[in-house]
Design brief:
With 331 residues, the protein is an alpha/beta fold. It has helices spanning 3-24, 79-86, 109-119, 127-130, 137-147, 154-163, 179-190, 209-226, 266-269, 279-285, 302-308, and strands at residues 37-48, 51-63, 68-72, 94-99, 102-103, 120-123, 197-201, 229-234, 245-250, 253-260, 286-290, 315-319, 322-326.
């Protein structure tokens, strides 16, 4: 062994020791009674010159540990802003956001670095943002471990690649794999440091429907195998059939939720996902609800408002245990 190798090993040991001490200083406040992820009256304002843009307007959301949740919304709805806040990439302007006991409003700079490395994992739509092109699949997965002080965990990297169905592609570089295989590697990379939450931003946006369906099966498998909570952001409403709970966001607030009412079994897996997710089939597997916030406000789906010709105001009636929403009396 030459002097440079000795020096490299010595410095590596120092970095690893320091990083392990650094990890011990992190003490998130975890309560068994609170939701695993909770957003209360979450507000995000972007200031552009003299203008203020409200990306989130009092959003409220809870997610339980182990859930696979889809956040669905059109461009500008606030879904990517929410993902960035939950991922520690941005900070809320107001309200509160907590993930796995971490108060995202009060994290220090050092806490935020640790949180992004160890608590959450990211899968992005653009493959180039997930993988380093000149590294093999195995090397890509090992890289986050090395950067976090875990120098020799090759077995864990191999286990992850096998879990996403790439046991025979470990030595291949990204350009030697299909788009679907690259996204599988990206999922393994996101899981490298054993995060508690996996955040995916339009993970099937660049894939065809068959490949996209397979990627959702991989998400379901890793959620079951590793107990990770998965949040998938997308603009495609058809994906609600592939998750446990689909949350639709509109104008910076949660408007509706679709909750799965039967287990997502291997037998039914073939029938859900990107190909067969029309509204009728979703009604057989999900219950759809309009969400009330803590102030009793709700968003009526746009298609309902159009059918009832309701615009700026509505009439409410309470009859036989039901709340009836009607267009205002025009007489």
């Amino acid at each position: 062994m030459n002097n440079s190798q000795k020096t490299g090993g010595f410095l590596g040991d120092i970095i690893s020791k320091y990083y392990q001490q650094f990890l011990k200083t992190q003490k998130p406040d975890v309560s068994e009674k609170e939701a695993f992820i909770r957003c209360d009256n979450l507000i995000k304002i972007y200031r552009i010159n003299d203008l203020e843009v409200f990306a989130l307007q009092g959003l409220e959301l809870t997610i339980n540990c182990g859930e696979m949740v889809g956040i669905i919304g059109s461009s500008g709805s606030g879904k990517s802003t929410l993902l960035n806040i939950l991922g520690g990439l941005d900070s809320p302007t107001g309200g509160q956001a907590r993930v796995a006991g971490w108060d995202l409003n009060k994290m220090s700079y050092r806490d935020r670095i640790f949180y992004k490395r160890q608590v959450v994992g990211f899968v992005w739509q653009k493959i180039g943002r997930n993988l380093i092109p000149y590294l093999s699949a195995l090397e890509n997965v090992r890289l986050p471990m090395i950067l976090s002080g875990e120098r020799g965990n090759r077995e864990w990297a191999e286990e992850l690649l096998e879990a996403v169905g790439l046991k025979d592609r470990m030595g291949h570089r990204p350009l030697e794999m299909s788009g679907g295989q690259q996204q599988r590697v990206a999922i393994a990379v996101a899981l490298a440091n054993k995060p508690q939450v996996l955040l995916a931003d339009e993970p099937t946006g660049s894939l065809d429907s068959d490949t996209g369906t397979e990627i959702f099966k991989v998400f379901k498998k890793v959620a079951a195998d590793f107990g990770v909570t998965i949040i998938i952001v997308t603009h495609d409403r058809s994906l609600s059939g592939a998750v446990d709970r689909a949350v639709e966001i509109r104008d910076g607030k949660i408007s509706t939720e679709s909750v799965r009412n039967k287990p997502l079994s291997d037998e039914s897996e073939v029938k859900i996902g990107l190909k067969n997710t029309d509204e009728k089939s979703q009604q057989q597997t999900h219950e759809k609800y309009t969400v009330l916030d803590s102030s009793g406000r709700l968003q009526i789906p746009e298609e309902y408002l159009e059918k009832m010709d309701i615009k700026d105001r509505a009439a409410l009636k309470f009859e036989e245990g039901k709340i009836i929403v009607e267009p205002p009396n025009k007489d």
